[in-house]
Amino acid sequence: MRLHWQILIALALAVIFGSYTDALSDAVSIDLTVVYQFFGSLFLNALKMIIVPLIVSSIIVGISGMQNDHSFARMGGKTFIYYISTSIIAILIGLAMVSLFQPGLIGDIPARDILGLHADTNEVTEKVGAASAASLSDIFLRMIPTNIIYAAAHGQMLGLIFFSLLFGYFLARNQSEGQKSLKGFFDATFHVMLDITNLIMRFAPIGVFALVANVIAVSGLEVFIPLAKFFFIVLAGLFIHSFIVMPILLKTIARVQPTKHIRAMSPAMLTAFSTSSSSATLPVTLDCIQERAGVSNRTSSFVLPLGATINMDGTALYECVAALFIAQAYGLTLGLAEQFTVVVLALMTSIGVAGVPAASLVAITIILTAIGLPLEAIGLILAVDRILDMCRTAVNVFSDSCGAVIIARSEGEQTNLA
């Protein structure tokens, strides 16, 4: 059975077991949430274990294989244009969905008066407030770490990527006797890490089952009822971006079959859904895009690690919808100027706070502050944030993979998706 079918079956079983966890725990006299957490953490730890060596070796091998400075600059320009364009499209989809369906109103009454706050937001507000938003200058500062070992140990991916790009760039131009040996070392490391990734993915169905079952067991399905309109509008926006906009780009620009690409990337998307982490999914994304889609390491090693750090289409869409939903729920009517502010901030913060825990919540607080709403308004969306985080992460990863294919095709590469 193909891996994506195994993971889909695991997801279905996770929903069933998660929904009846209390009854099953009583029957076997074991707290099954502890079991879920153990196997879920084991799978996540395995993925996180290989991130640094895989990404460093992949980038160095890919960049050192480029023939000249012009190809490096050309690919960087294409990648930047793709990331900005797709994020703006995602935000505009979110803006249109909120304006059309107005999830913040139940009847003609602001949802706040009916819903109230579904959680004690003091702790969340304090936590989010402590993680200040990254300004543009902060992003550039994070690109150049003072200690590369510290950056690797603490998961500071932007600095690690920048160092690896520099290392690969100058390795290609180095004429010393050890240059070939050094390139051979990183090439061998990269292929060994891919083999380890394939081994870990054999256990992906177990990890996915544990992670999703734990979310369902802790959150329950009933939390979606009062926020169903908001929840399904976000899902609809994410669906439109992933399965209408992205396939159109693949078909018209890359001239590949979107259905083949979706099948090729399904293990990565399902892993992203269960882990809620683009970075943790990165080893799987690289494996799928190279082994299943046929994109070269030269392109994927540049586009994907950068995308996992700064390209957050799903997050940008969610931030826009959440901020406007909260504004509607508080009875605030936003004019064109305020909506433009939301769009710009959603674009900037989806990049700027990508490396911060609970990044979307941090970003939403910035937008709320800009349009004059209290931070406690986050309490309106906390109940469904976890599940939507899983969905938007899958969209983020899928957008990254589409970018890799589009840029590869623009560079004249052949893929397995024709």
Characterize the structure shown.
This protein has helices at 3-19, 21-28, 32-64, 69-101, 111-115, 121-130, 136-143, 148-153, 157-172, 179-201, 204-219, 228-254, 258-275, 278-292, 297-310, 313-329, 336-352, 359-370, 382-410; strands spanning 105-106, 109-110. The chain has 19 helices and two strands. A hairpin with a 2-residue loop joins β1 (105-106) and β2. It has a two-stranded antiparallel sheet. It is mainly α and 418 residues long. It has a single domain (3-410), classed as Proton glutamate symport protein, CATH 1.10.3860.
List strands and helices in order, with pairings.
Blueprint: H1 3-19, H2 21-28, H3 32-64, H4 69-101, E1 105-106, E2 109-110, H5 111-115, H6 121-130, H7 136-143, H8 148-153, H9 157-172, H10 179-201, H11 204-219, H12 228-254, H13 258-275, H14 278-292, H15 297-310, H16 313-329, H17 336-352, H18 359-370, H19 382-410
Antiparallel strand pairs: 1-2
Short description:
Helix content is 78%, strand content 1%.
How many angstroms separate the termini? 24 Å
Compute the CA-based radius of gyration. Answer: 22 Å
CATH homologous superfamily classification: Sodium:dicarboxylate symporter
Mean pLDDT: 84
Count of the separate structural domains: 1
| CATH architecture classification | Orthogonal Bundle
Unreliable spans are 117-135
Structure annotation, total helices:
19
Order of helices and strands: HHHHEEHHHHHHHHHHHHHHH
Strand fraction band? under 5%
Largest sheet: 2 strands, antiparallel
